[in-house]
Amino acid sequence: MSASARQTLSRIETLASVNSTNDHAWQLLTDGNKSPFVCLAEQQTSGRGRRGKQWQSPAMGNLYLSLFWPFAANCPPRGLSIAIGVTLVETLNTFGINNLQLKWPNDVLCKGHKLAGILIESRYNGGYNTVIGVGLNFRLSPDLQQIVDQPVTSLEQQCSQLPCRNQLAGQLIENLIEAVEKFQCNGLNDFLQSWHSMDLLFGHPVEISNDAETFSAIAQGINANGELQYLYKGQLMSLSSSHYSIRLSL
Ligand code: BTN
């Protein structure tokens, strides 16, 4: 990891086992850490995904990482998931992992199967304390049912040679810090074009649903705020809430 990344972080903690690196980060925050830090774990006993789902996290050499970042009150982290998704894909590309696409808001898919997930949580307290959680599958346990409604994959299944996890983690942390700093200065300007080239959904019929409703639309990429744009009954609409789930229609 570069000297500048080390200077930015007040702490990097590696844990054998933890309930969830995101929960651990929130705990460290209540213990008084207020500057950026990272925690990683070999295993999570209650790993969490988006929309209240479980993220199964066995000790199989996978990456479970959380970065805490305090955003100022004038820089709400709206759309940050776009910048983080792009950064994760670009980092994986530099390790020779290709054929990756992003599904709004930030699922990383390899040939249609979920390879990595991102869980961003933000709490306002005069500024926006934010925990960016990243889970990346190096190996799947045979009984793994990570995302019940989506096929999953791992680097082991997709690469002829597995990248070194520590090297990848170090590079990813460095790139995430750079991305967050760019986002603070420029919002999503530096990420929109890359997103477009990685967008799984663009131009495709999709089903958009939450607990209350499901409707069909045509995905139209994202806008400058990172909201999903879609055509619904001939009208261009946008969706900001990551509480929705999006599926490609068959
Ligand atoms: C998703 O796709 O639903 C998001 C999954 C995010 C999983 C990561 S693993 C590290 C961090 N700690 C957690 O409990 N969740 C995130």
TrEMBL record:
The keyword Oxidoreductase does not apply. CDD domains: BPL. Transmembrane segments: none annotated. It holds the Pfam family BPL_LplA_LipB. InterPro entries: aa-tRNA-synth_II/BPL/LPL (IPR045864), Biotin_CoA_COase_ligase (IPR004408), BPL_LPL_catalytic (IPR004143). Residues 13-184 form the BPL/LPL catalytic domain. SUPFAM superfamilies: Class II aaRS and biotin synthetases. PROSITE patterns: BPL_LPL_CATALYTIC. Its EC number is 6.3.4.15. Keywords: Ligase. GO terms for cellular component: cytoplasm. Gene3D superfamilies: Bira Bifunctional Protein, Domain 2 (3.30.930.10). The keyword Ligase applies. GO terms for molecular function: biotin--[biotin carboxyl-carrier protein] ligase activity. This is Bifunctional biotin--[acetyl-CoA-carboxylase] synthetase/biotin operon repressor.
